[in-house]
């Protein structure tokens, strides 16, 4: 009797663990392939977007003249050219604190300053998902930085809880640590760093396949009279309120997978931003 009872319990617990693992993976997929848009930098692009079969395999070059020529890393589980030999903790440290297992620092434009705010649970989900994607063998070149990298991005992060349960806090988390909207859409201060006090007020021009594009002001000053549907369409389809098509690197191809609830929270946050000067 006790034997059968124990066995039943073990099966039940085993089933629960599997369900939890599946939920974690699903959350990780939603984050990496959706709001976090890791592939916007880590998947190489051809004339018609992401190169098929090369998801997260790296090689895309991002240049900021005078500052850096960054080559996005292969973050698939390939043991030779990707992160297949890293432990979960090592992958987590690389994403949230920008430190590789060999101690070196990951350079810009990976938005580590914002990633320091990724909640523990979401970080674990991202790591689980990255482990599950098909390994792709792709040796990428090395980045070169004309500006010295800092010794670190800050003190050890410790633990980060999920945001408070209200639309504006959730939206701030989605537009900051997860979706890095405010990395592109905020001005750079005199010290060369993003000026978070003016988050959303528009960023400096950036390179796109079609020449330079400017991440616009997305505070209420600029989009205050847009309807929620118009803001949703800009984020998920890359169509501005006046109907014109927006260009990459605005990551609408990834944001198309963001849930309606999360989109509403992002809009609540944008509507609460102080208007640009
Ligand atoms: C804006 C572009 C950008 C985004 C977005 C981005 N990364 Fe990166 N990432 C890079 C670049 C560029 C490097 C290489 C930097 C260097 O050479 O120092 C890098 C390096 C890494 C590394 C280190 C790999 C190695 O072998 O050195 C990991 C892990 C990583 N990224 C994971 C992620 C994950 C996960 C996401 C999404 C949550 C993400 N990145 C989003 C640009 C980006
Ligand atoms: C990698 C940089 C980048 C990221 C990340 C990014 N954007 Fe953008 N965004 C742009 C650029 C560049 C444009 C303008 C493109 C153009 O004019 O063709 C733009 C345009 C927009 C527009 C349209 C503004 C207008 O006046 O037409 C909205 C709204 C917007 N972004 C919101 C967001 C939100 C919300 C997020 C996060 C979920 C986000 N963006 C993430 C670069 C980015």
TrEMBL record:
Coiled coil: none annotated. Residues 1-19 form the signal peptide. Keywords: Heme, Iron, Metal-binding, Signal. InterPro entries: Cyt_c-like_dom (IPR009056), Cyt_c-like_dom_sf (IPR036909), Cytochrome_c-type_DH (IPR051459). SUPFAM superfamilies: Cytochrome c. Residues 23-134, 166-274 form the Cytochrome c domain. This is Cytochrome C. It comes from Belnapia arida. Transmembrane segments: none annotated.
């Amino acid at each position: 009797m006790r034997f059968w009872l124990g066995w039943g319990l073990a099966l039940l617990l085993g089933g629960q663990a599997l369900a939890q693992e599946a939920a974690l993976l699903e959350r990780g997929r939603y984050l990496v392939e959706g709001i976090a848009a890791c592939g916007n930098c880590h998947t190489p692009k051809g004339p018609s977007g992401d190169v098929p079969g090369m998801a997260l395999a790296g090689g895309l070059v991002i240049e900021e003249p005078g500052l850096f020529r960054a080559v996005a890393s292969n973050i698939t589980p390939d043991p030779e050219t990707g992160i297949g030999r890293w432990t979960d903790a090592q992958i987590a440290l690389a994403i949230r604190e920008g430190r590789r297992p060999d101690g070196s620092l990951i350079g810009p434009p990976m938005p580590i300053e914002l990633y320091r705010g990724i909640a523990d649970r979401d970080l674990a989900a991202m790591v689980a998902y990255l482990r599950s994607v098909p390994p792709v063998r792709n040796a990428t070149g090395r980045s070169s930085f004309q500006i010295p990298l800092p010794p670190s991005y800050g003190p050890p992060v410790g633990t980060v809880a999920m945001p408070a349960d209200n639309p504006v806090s959730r939206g701030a988390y989605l537009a900051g640590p997860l979706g890095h909207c405010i990395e592109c859409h905020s001005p750079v201060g005199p010290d060369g760093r993003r000026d978070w006090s003016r988050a959303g007020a528009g960023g400096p021009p950036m390179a796109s396949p079609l020449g330079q594009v400017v991440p616009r002001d997305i505070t209420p000053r600029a989009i205050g009279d847009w309807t929620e549907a118009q803001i949703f369409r800009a984020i998920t389809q890359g169509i501005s309120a006046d109907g014109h098509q927006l260009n990459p690197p605005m990551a609408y191809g990834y944001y198309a997978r963001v849930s309606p609830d999360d989109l509403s929270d992002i809009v609540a946050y944008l509507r609460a931003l102080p208007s640009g000067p």
